[in-house]
Specification:
217 residues; five-stranded mixed sheet; 6 helices; 36% helix
Amino acid sequence: GLKVVNMTLEPIAAIRVAIPEKFRLLNIAMIDVGAGTSDISITNDGSVAAFGMIPCAGDTITESLAKQCLIDFATAEQIKKDAKTKSVITYEDIMGLEQTVAAEEVISMCQLEIEKMAKLASDEIKRLNGGNSPSAVFIVGGGGKIQGFSEQIARELGLDPKRVALRGEEIMKEVEFPEDSLKDSTIVTPIGICLSYYEQTNNFIHVTFNGNKVKLY
């Protein structure tokens, strides 16, 4: 019963929240690390200067973990999440055996994929930015929360690690959240998609075709 009322691109929605217009005079890159792809946006001189995408994101890391630990994708995804909050993680492998792994070891197993993703993202940022590194990088999306990713981006771009940061609750102060709701980097893009409707920057065109009212984007 739902109807489409607005449509936008994910990087446009994410940058609406992650890099407000007042900061777009600066040369900033945003990486929205999702599940299957990472969207990249570049701001400079007051506007969004370029968009890009790399086919590498959170699922790539999860798949690598699944192969190394002999577990299914869902278990690997949970282990990846638990590595941020637990020092030791217990899981069951495909042989039905209970295993334990330290959080540090989980990150170590993911390291090659983290480095690969950071290299691809950094190369795309420089390509979109005329061959140069930006002044700062903001990271959003669930896939960007993996430990060591922001530091690796800083190394690849030759930036001070303090200029590469995961963005979350601190950039959504205008939004009133229900109590106990999620407020981290994973919802920056969904919030941006919602806000784009209220801004009405992407209006539909209504036409009548063979007696039916049709919405065109």
